[in-house]
Design goal:
single chain, mainly alpha, two-stranded antiparallel sheet, 46 helices, 2 strands, 53% helix, globular
Length: 1099
């Protein structure tokens, strides 16, 4: 206010500066100003004397009004309390004189035109009429606690019923998540908040000046500064781990000091009860933290506590919000700290290795390159005793672009391979050579990815010739390799080449190894012309690499300038090993599966844990190089509300196919998932090589169990010409009824129904003399074929004929009685129990399929919508569910046989949906059960995607992937490929890019070459993401420095967005890392310049 003779103006509202004046010895409590500007010094001095007596009362009044602000400013609060007890200096806030307040006090004018408010003396009669006030005239507000009534613990709530607010009781299971476990008013348990307040009973403070008649929940106002400092120090020393609640919440910790042991014991029942009903993750964190505190030698608890951090991190996410990189780094630090604590408490070498593996995998996320390399160097002796630790080191070395070099990683593989082979006699031979096969697979895939394709392919030719085609008179000793060198250097036909017979068929006794292979004349394919010099070099390099997929002979054309084209025995000697004959027969399935995985094909057997591990290894798993993501465009002319879009066929072409091997997927009848994709025909050379190799393994090496896989490859190459290879198989194995069934399915899939029927008729007649399960498989295949043709009654008869000889001999249509059905059902059930008791799971799967199909065709009282063409789907699924429970009860829950039976159940579900009405909710529920058991199975995921309506707002597939599939322990390359494919079909460019980004952040996918290549091509093919393509390329190079295919994308895909210096840098990176280069860039560019100058001279 001005001091001149002017009319006093209303004070301007302002806040105090919250800062004490320099002349005052102590700080002031935060207070609001009196909404008056500062007075001159003289007037302020006179007012301070007059207001000295009432200052303490105003201080207490301000404290009660602004307690929340003072709680956030604890240090200011202490000074205010001290001043309120007396002896405080005068307040620095300016005061307004009483006469000034009276002068500016506003007066009420009843006749004023503009009124800030009005008093309603009459009331609104419409309130009585409508029961409430006009909601449009009431400002929007929300009740605290979501409408819960104070004192009812959430049982009584206020909800809006039209214009009125009504009270209602919340029933059990309703309301918020925290109340769903409470049983309404009947519950006897009292609710404990997720963050309970701790009250410690302390002795009376003798220094307190005034006695309070209540128990304060906060610190007493009369506490001295020393007490505040002591409490603050205690809080700083108490742990504040994120492992308790997932995020570092203030003052939420587990008491770890000895002074609070009594308090922890008294509070533990409360926390347990609250955790079980409120936050189970927090409750588990508390229990694990106490366990490792009381028993630090419990390594299992330490590891479980570290793994529990992944659940806590995921609890802070949702389907639309993922954890930030900083959060991932923080949780990695927490896990690393816990594992380091566990390592300091280990008591044996076995526990030490168990802790070191996750510790090093988490450590490389936190440490820098030098620190990680130093720590790995300190663990060389530990790696010798642990394959898992060595593989973790290998993954790190292959993904570290700073220190990567081809020769170093190759030596790392060879050292481990030789070390394992030297352990013969000290460990089980099966275990030793199983690990050796896996190491050899990783080594060959690494060599192939680095560009040395001839060496990798020659290594597999040599390992198969050396072990599978080894002559009988060659012993398992060191002389075996010297004898094999003569065979290899003779350059006769080898496995995979047309006309090869193998090492065993060579005329060794006569001293002649046969004539060498004819020189190969390679036809020069026309290369794509480009004005861009670097793109032209990329096309030339790609063309030369494509020709070098199979090793050449000395006399072949085009080998003068490329010495790597011819692979000598000296190049292979360090890579080879001899498997003893005593264990070879049991390891042949794993060896052949590894060979198929090397060629980017699904395994044929999948019986070994090593094979399953290889299928989920990001350095090995992935589709064939020719696989591409296909987007699905919805037709614009179709009505969005019609069923045409919903009734489209499922995406049977799964580029990340992962499922159990069965005849239904090897030879899919009509529309179904195919185990071997027809797109492998695009890589003609590799397909011919694998067909020749499998034919020689089946017919020459006499590996009968590989016959169905070989026939499926022939059907992929040419379905019409499958008859010739099938006859060759049946001629050599006339008693193999599975081959008859496979050939019949191949003909039926090619629409040759009559041929397939004749094959099954003759096969079942031969199988009638046998009591094995293969005969039941033939009848099941025949029954399913008849049902798909629309012959439901005939399909039932085929199934009953498997157990009734009288029905087989009758050619005319015979009406089936309940006796036939009951006999067949009992036979299937008894055979299932018998095979379970003997552990023959393969036969169990056959009988369960027969029982499920019979139930679907004959059962009554279906609870689901059905038509004449359909069967009883509810009873069939109930039968499969009973057998699934039997698998689980006997410990075979994760077996391939169990997965195969559920795949057959899924096929029946899909057939039923295509033949008539069905409920999508029921189908989704059944498939969700299957996915819970086998989250990586793409057959279940593909059908679930089809059953889920694409027109719904909520994407059930995306939710299912987030909750059950893309989780720790189940995540993999195949699942990520399915999620990406789903976003391309159902989402848009942004959601697909987000799916790619999430896959690349995953620990099990960040070094997957197929995923990175697809990501680069996706970004380059869309204008919205094209600016990001170069950045994605550099990220891929950082994670996959061994992959030449990734670096070649710079010249083949992203060359338009890169400068010449950047392309030159990529080429220099390839050469400095030791990758294979066919065409020298400098020579190529110089040749282009000479050609350009020559063309200008001619003009």
């Amino acid at each position: 206010m001005s001091t001149n003779n002017e009319t006093p103006e209303l004070p301007v509202p302002k806040f105090a500066s919250f800062k004490a004046k320099e002349k005052l010895p102590e700080k002031r409590a935060p207070k609001f100003s009196s909404f008056k500007p500062r007075e001159p010094e003289k007037r302020r001095a006179s007012e301070e004397d007059r207001d000295q007596d009432s200052r303490s009362k105003r201080s207490r009044h301000s404290e009660s009004r602004h307690s929340d602000r003072r709680e956030r400013s604890r240090s200011h609060l202490h000074d205010s309390n001290r001043r309120s007890r007396g002896g405080s200096p005068p307040s620095s806030r300016p005061k307004t004189p009483d006469h000034a307040r009276q002068a500016v006090k506003p007066t009420r004018d009843e006749n004023a035109v503009s009124k800030p408010y009005a008093i309603d003396l009459k009331g609104d009669p419409l309130i009585l009429r409508y029961g409430s006030s006009d909601k449009s005239q009431v400002p929007a507000y929300w009740r605290y606690g979501s409408g819960r009534v104070l004192g009812t613990a959430g049982r009584l709530v206020i909800h809006r019923d039209g214009p009125r607010d009504q009270f209602s009781l919340r029933m059990p299971g309703e309301g918020l998540y925290a109340f769903r476990d409470l049983d309404g008013l009947r519950t006897k348990a009292w609710r404990v908040t997720s963050n309970p307040r701790r009250v410690r009973v302390k002795g009376l403070d003798t220094q307190t000046d005034e006695v309070e008649d209540f128990l304060p929940l906060r610190s007493s106002k009369t506490r001295k500064r020393g007490q505040d400092d002591l409490k603050s120090s205690d809080e700083d020393e108490q742990p504040n781990y994120r492992s308790i609640e997932g995020k570092a919440k203030a003052r939420a910790f587990l008491d770890s000091d000895s002074d609070s042991s009594t308090e922890s014991e008294s509070e533990s029942p409360i926390e347990v009860a609250g955790g079980e009903r409120g936050n189970h993750l927090k409750w588990k964190s508390i229990q694990l933290s106490r366990q490792v505190k009381d028993h630090p030698e419990d390594i299992d608890a330490w590891i479980e506590l570290a793994n529990h951090q992944d659940d806590l991190l995921r609890a802070g996410e949702d389907i639309d919000r993922k954890a930030l990189d900083s959060e991932l780094h923080s949780y990695a630090e927490i896990k690393l700290s816990m594992l380091e604590s566990a390592l300091s408490n280990v008591t044996c070498s076995k526990d030490r290795l168990r802790v070191l593996v996750p510790l090093m995998r988490e450590g490389v996320k936190v440490w820098n390159h030098k620190t990680a390399a130093r720590k790995w160097a300190d663990l060389r002796k530990d790696e010798e005793a642990s394959f898992a630790l060595w593989r973790a080191h290998l993954d790190f070395a292959m993904s570290d672009i700073a220190s990567f070099h081809y020769d170093d990683i190759k030596k790392m593989h060879l050292d481990r391979l030789h070390q394992v082979l030297q352990q013969q006699g000290s460990a089980s031979p099966e275990k030793i050579f199983s690990e050796a096969i896996y190491i050899f697979l990783r080594l060959s895939r690494f060599i192939h990815g680095s560009g040395y394709k001839e060496l990798a392919m020659a290594a597999w030719q040599a390992i198969l010739e050396l072990n599978v085609f080894r002559p009988t008179h060659v012993n398992d000793d060191t002389k075996t390799l010297s004898e094999f060198s003569d065979f290899w250097e003779s350059e006769v036909l080898r496995i995979g080449e047309p006309g090869a017979k193998g090492w065993a068929e060579s005329p060794l006794d006569s001293g002649e190894l046969g004539d060498p292979a004819e020189p190969l004349h390679v036809k020069d394919e026309p290369m794509t012309q480009s004005r861009d010099e670097y793109k032209a070099w990329g096309n030339a390099e790609y063309s030369h690499a494509k020709k070098a997929s199979i090793p050449a002979r000395t006399m072949d054309e085009g080998n003068d300038d490329d010495p790597f084209r011819v692979v000598m025995f000296s190049d292979l000697e360090q890579l080879l090993f001899v498997i003893p004959r005593l264990v070879l027969q049991g390891l042949i399935p794993q060896l052949l599966d590894a060979f198929l995985i090397f060629l980017r094909l699904p395994p044929a057997f999948g019986l070994s844990d090593w094979t399953e591990d290889a299928c989920n290894d990001q350095f090995l798993a992935g589709p064939s190089p020719v696989a591409e993501l296909q987007s699905h465009e919805k037709p614009s002319e179709v009505d969005p509300l019609s069923e045409e879009i919903q009734r489209r066929s499922p995406s049977f072409e799964q580029i990340g196919y992962h499922a159990a091997a069965s005849v239904n997927e090897l030879f899919p009848v009509k529309s179904w998932f195919r185990r071997v994709s027809p797109k492998v025909k695009d890589g003609h050379n590799e397909l011919e090589f694998v067909i020749n190799a499998t034919r020689q393994l089946v017919l020459v090496a006499k590996i009968e169990s590989l016959g169905q896989y070989y026939l499926s490859l022939c059907a992929v190459r040419d379905a019409a010409a499958v008859r010739k290879p099938a006859k060759a198989l049946l001629k050599q194995y006339p008693a193999n009824f599975k081959l008859y069934g496979a050939y019949a399915c191949a003909e039926f899939a090619n629409d040759n129904f009559d041929v397939g029927t004749k094959v099954l008729a003759s096969a079942t007649e031969l199988a009638s003399r046998s009591s094995g399960s293969d005969s039941f498989l033939l009848w099941r295949i025949w029954s399913l074929m008849e049902f798909e043709l629309g012959h439901k009654d005939l399909a039932i008869r085929r199934l009953c004929s498997s157990t009734d000889e009288a029905l087989r001999s009758k050619t005319e249509n015979v009406e089936l009685s309940q006796t036939h059905l009951l006999k067949a059902e009992r036979a299937f059930s008894s055979n299932i129990m018998q095979c379970f008791s003997t552990g023959n799971l393969e036969d169990v799967a056959i009988y369960v399929e027969c029982l499920g199909l019979l139930t679907y065709l004959t059962a009554d009282a279906c609870t689901e919508p059905t038509s004449v063409a359909q069967g009883n789907i509810s009873s069939a699924m109930a039968a499969f569910q009973v057998q699934s429970a039997e698998f689980k009860a006997r410990g075979y829950e994760k077996s391939k046989a169990h997965e195969q039976t559920l795949q057959f159940a899924a096929k029946i579900l899909y057939m039923n949906a295509t033949l008539g009405p069905f409920r999508r909710a029921y189908m989704l529920d059944q498939l969700s059960r299957f996915i819970t058991l086998f989250p990586r199975n793409t057959v279940f995921l593909g059908l679930y995607e089809w059953a889920d309506s694409s027109l719904r707002v909520i994407d059930e597939v995306r939710t299912l992937l987030y909750e059950k599939v893309l989780v720790v322990g189940q995540d993999g390359v195949g699942s990520r490929l399915f999620a990406i494919q789903h976003e391309m079909q159902r989402g848009n460019v942004n959601t697909t890019k987000a799916a790619f980004e999430e896959a690349m952040r995953s620990d099990v996918c960040k070094s997957s070459v197929p995923l990175w290549k697809l990501f680069i091509k996706f970004c380059s093919s869309h204008k919205e993401t094209r600016p990001k393509a170069k950045d994605v390329l550099f990220r891929a190079m950082r994670h996959c420095p061994w992959s030449k295919a990734v670096m070649m994308e710079a010249f083949l895909t992203v060359n338009r967005d890169m400068e010449s210096t950047e392309l030159r840098g990529v080429f220099d990176t390839m050469t400095s890392k030791g990758l294979r280069i066919h065409v020298d860039l400098d020579e190529f560019l110089e040749k282009r310049r000479r050609e350009r100058r020559a063309n200008k001279g001619q003009r």
